[in-house]
Amino acid sequence: MIYGFFGGKFLPLHRGHLYCIDTASRQCDYVTVIMFTGGDDELRICREQDDEILGVDFRIKQLERVCSLYDNVEFHVVDVTNLKLPDGTEDWDAETPLVRRYVPKMDYVYSSEPSYGEYFARAYPEAEHVIVDAQRVHYPISGTLIRAMKEIKERKKWMV
Fold first, then answer.
1. Beta pairing partners, 30
2. Which residues in 23-37 are b (16+ Cβ under 10 Å) and which e?
3. Cis ω before 12 (30° cut-off from 0)
4. Mean pLDDT for back-to-back runs of 10 residues, the chain (160 residues)
């Protein structure tokens, strides 16, 4: 069995995320998708934008729907509200044991961010970091870009 892991905040869930989930599901026998909630970035963004698509409940429903399309993908939510470094930023190392509750074994960890490699090597030394569409060739979008869009029609074009 080949195990994969893909995690994120999904603020909002977009076509690039779906591409990563789809890629992982084709390369692995079993994939775990985790949505992290309660981090400072998420709370700040949701307060500033007050947009339904960024709400936790909305994102959970979207990810449940998307993950249910795949026989080999499961979905979990992990609350990281109280996991902070002294400077107040999120403590990814403290998140690792929470991920391991759902993903005790992984062969691959997926992202579109090469900069996550150092953390993944430390947190999941047995797993290969698979970088999916880092240059945003297939889906030239990110959550940051979607949140900056003023037109709802333009946002929806990229969202799942």
1. 3
2. bbbeebebbbbbbbb
3. yes
4. 96 93 98 86 56 78 95 95 76 90 96 93 96 90 83 81
50 secondary structure, DSSP code: -
pTM of the model: 0.89
* 16: its two tokens: 């690039």
Nearest to 36 by CA among 85, 77, 97, 73: 77
CB 143 within 8 A of CB 39: no
Region label for 121, one of left (φ > 0), alpha (ψ between -120 and 50) or beta (otherwise):
alpha
First CA to last CA across the chain, in angstroms? Answer: 29
